[in-house]
Amino acid sequence: MGGEAAILPKSKAGEAVANAIEELGFGLYQLVPLLLTGGIFLAEGAEMLVMGSLTSLLHSHWELSPTYKGGMVSIVFIGFSVGNFLSGQIGDRFGRRISILTAYSMLFLFGFATAMSHGPVMMILLRFFVGAGCGIGFPAAYSLMPEVCPSSWKCALSTLMIGFMPLGEIVGALGVLAIDPELDSSAVGCSYEMYYPSKALLQPERCAWKSLCELSAIPAFLFLILAAKFMDESPMWLACHGRYEECEEVLQRMAKLNGKRLDVEKLRSGFGAAQGETQGEAKAEQGYSLTAVFEKMSDPSLRYVVLFMFLAHIGKDFSVFGLSYMLPQYFVFLEGMSAGWELLTVATISMPGIFLTYLASRAQSVSLVHWLSGSAGICSMLALGMLSMSPDAAAAPCAYVVKLLALSYFIFTVVYTATAFPTDIRNTAVGLCTCVGRIGSISAPLLLEISKAVTGSFDFFIGCLIAVLGTIAIVAPFALPRESEIQAEKSLAKTAKDYGSVKSSA
Hints:
Blueprint: H1 12-24, H2 28-62, H3 66-94, H4 96-113, H5 120-144, H6 154-162, H7 164-179, H8 191-195, H9 197-202, H10 204-230, H11 235-240, H12 244-258, H13 264-275, H14 290-297, H15 303-334, H16 339-362, H17 368-382, H18 392-418, H19 423-455, H20 459-479, H21 492-505
Helix pairs in contact: 1-12, 1-13, 2-3, 2-4, 2-5, 2-6, 2-7, 2-10, 2-15, 3-4, 3-5, 3-19, 4-5, 4-10, 5-19, 6-16, 6-18, 7-10, 7-16, 15-16, 15-18, 15-19, 15-20, 16-18, 17-18, 17-20
């Protein structure tokens, strides 16, 4: 049935499943997809931190030019962009679970294979497929969490899911500390030594970077095993594709783990009503259509909202992934603690930031738009402390807080986007937004390396960060619908229409 089944964004089946999830509430069941989707972000956090560290190790080993150094990271985000685009085709056509399993498989296989690279060209090629794996997984994870949670928990659980990213950075930072805390190719004790002990002693830098590549791939392998065994398909996706028996099985497991009773007759009544919908009540049966998604997103009433979310995602990627690449080099430049300890510190500080973001997401009285705008604005202002003209004592503390706030901004942007689209197009729409956002992550490493080579400082990159986030902070309250919570099953068109009518009457 899969992608050839009818897609009914407002079907009675979808309404019946949404009502069932509300009645079953939050419980142990939701913790399973939280863990198994969070693994995508944990694996990505480890990969990104390690990749920023690898460029320092490989610079002397392969005599990398600034273009190669920046390109080695930018290619990952080009892969992200391709993966984001493909994720919509996979996730909306074949299911969220398939997308997530594919992502874990690619992260492990290609991440581990980078340890066998014999030169920068091979490394860049393999890193492209690592990025594609992350890109396939992200929109599916963003889509799955709102589809298995009662409405009051959607934002909070999505926040906790993305909070696995700094956990991955902690794993990566611990790896740097264990293998080469100074990022100066001084480590000799690693797995490469087991196979070629004499070469490891003569070429310790090869040993260090190979071990980091292997380490960063391990989380994806562990989560792949767990997800293959325990992850269910989204019940909302199953209902929208007419796979009612499988949907009921998933909801029965949800009821059992949450200690509730599923009203089977009410659910089946909704399924029966969906099967009996007339042509006038629902769309004619049709397969997945990318053109239809574009048409919905390009509706005149939505145009400015969608365009702003493209900008918001560019800022999200430029800040979070650009900082992940910059900070290992920035902390070496500061000549304070070892780079490994600085990285561990900034990753650890991000954890209370995730907790504060979680609390903010639970505050029903404040709009997501205001949290998004506020976190971007404060991040932009504090980034001034990282400029070379600022006092030296302010550099490291500002870097910590900017990293923390950039991650909060990342979360609010993703949560807003993921809850704004209906089930039938959610994976594709989120994938398109994140795909455009990769412009930020692709350009950040190249801008950093080129500007550092030309100016000898990080100021140009930091200035771009200040400008992008400052613009988003100012424009967001005027460009986006102001709602304290966006319902996951409300279409983006209706949201924009409601906002427009309120604005015109004001």
